[in-house]
Amino acid sequence: MEAEVTEILIPKNKSISPENSVHEHNIELKTYSSGLKWIFLDYSSLWRAGFSWSIFFLLNVGVPLVSHFVFSCSDCDSDHQRPFDAIVQLSLSLFAAISFISLSSFARKYGLRRFLFLDKLCDESEKVRDGYTQQIHRSMKLLSAFVLPCFFVDSVYKIWWFSSGGNQIPYLYNIYLSKAIICILLMFSWLYRISICFLVCVLFRLTCYLQILRLEDFAQVFEKESDVASILIEHLRIRRNLRVISHRFRVFILSTLILVTISQFVSLLVTTEPSSRINLSTAGELALCSITLVTGLFICLRSAAKITHKAHAVTSLASKWHACATIDSFDELHDETPRAQIASARTGYPVTPDWDTDNEEGDGDDALDNTNLVPIYANTVSYQRRQALVTYFEHNKAGITVYGFMLDRTWLHTIFAIQLSLTLWILNKTIGIS
Can you give the pTM of this predicted structure? Predict the structure, then answer.
């Protein structure tokens, strides 16, 4: 199955690298193919595509519906009742549906190799290729770190629920066989849905991380002799990639944000009602579902905000480069600054010795965001060209967007403020908090 998925999702007429790296990248693709086979994503033929959608409808629609209507257990004791099951099943199934449709669209349009930008990885530096390779392997571990604990906790709950329910829980023919089959189906349905949800979020994080590596590599052009044209072309390429990522994921991010917002506020509304009975057995799955949805949204928003922040830091770096070059040019003309300080500036270390007295690095300091001066190559780039480049960066800020809205930290603060306002409003209506 793994080889088939790899062959289907990777266009045969594409080459991603020279001969010495093709085998390495194929190994990386097999790693992701092993993750994709969890969702039976196969479009090589009509019947395989039909099988993929059949599995989706069975585990994402059929099993949850049967679970809710047949095993609602309204006549059970208080510990085995599931008053919030409708919210859990609907929220998780809708999130999985959004994710599955997105994955299906990505597979049909791009293929795994093109979707992960591996077809153009041979044009990048060795540092970028090595860093991206490490992130591909790390992302699969990250996917397992999110999926397996959620699956384990839900499996323990379902096994306890079926084993301790006795004759209260409906069964067919043989009580033990019936409950075992239903319990296994419900466990597989939960695993299937959360795997789809987290897989799309991890793929988005991975593609964003590639652009972070490219930006960090791009920052080195200001520390060596470079002409404005080459800097501009490279930035336009990165900006185009960010625009492509934004276009691919904008529907998924917006739909997920709306779904998670509605789901969490409905959950808050029903759990804060005076008649609601809240304990681990009745609201445990609701809490686990909420954690899953919020975590998936958090992965997407954090990745988008991080790459947007890095892209905006390029403007600050270019301005610093322009200022250092301009100051150095005037120092050489008027001989106002001792040559030792100019030499210090050329080495890239701070001129003012009190900046890093504790030898501590700021949070997230790197080539894009630090207090070190830029080595000066004033003779290679004229003042007018440097000024034009800085002006271009100021008016063409790159980043992840959703229908024109930049997903930066300010946008996240706005979301948090809106969510907090709605939360306080709901709490005021239910338990009287103002």
Answer: 0.82
